[in-house]
Amino acid sequence: AQSVTQLGSHVSVSEGALVLLRCNYSSSVPPYLFWYVQYPNQGLQLLLKYTSAATLVKGINGFEAEFKKSETSFHLTKPSAHMSDAAEYFCAVSEKQAGTALIFGKGTTLSVSS
Amino acid sequence: DGGITQSPKYLFRKEGQNVTLSCEQNLNHDAMYWYRQDPGQGLRLIYYSQIVNDFQKGDIAEGYSVSREKKESFPLTVTSAQKNPTAFYLCASSIQGQGQETQYFGPGTRLLVL
Q1: φ, ψ at B94 (rounded to 5°)
Q2: Percent of chain B having pLDDT more than 70?
């Protein structure tokens, strides 16, 4: 069965610093991969997704992620953190077949200090 | 505006009581999903539905029931058999495809036990 591992349940950075949130998936066949963001007591919003078109995916709010098949990874980065980036981030995977739901990692909480 | 609505925002359940969480979407999506979110656990799939009058169990369906009588609506009932119902419940929808579709999330319902 597919699984997703997010390394680090909590990441703290200073404003202006690089943001790196790690995600590894388990699959012999590259799946579809997603990053979602959740602000407190709200639903999830899609940041970006990988669907085989390009390995470097750009998303909203300056985030991007790179799909690396050899490392089975899909880490999320942002060059310069902003206070408004503080939220919980979820990596998710979907198998390449109709009717599949997402499998989520346990999430990483990003804190940004001034 | 198109989107997903969930109601109520907060719901209180008494011992032995069944409660129903509402989820409505006007995005004309065929697929709808229910997830349960617990702190540090990520999102776990309860039920999903690809078309009207059809639905499938997810990973943690025990103690829950759903119906899909209309395309726009996918209510979730938390039965008295669910012994630990306190959680944040998220509904999502997507178009039908091959797994790469974005899931759009509602704002969530927080269920608390009295």
Answers
A1: -155, 165
A2: 99
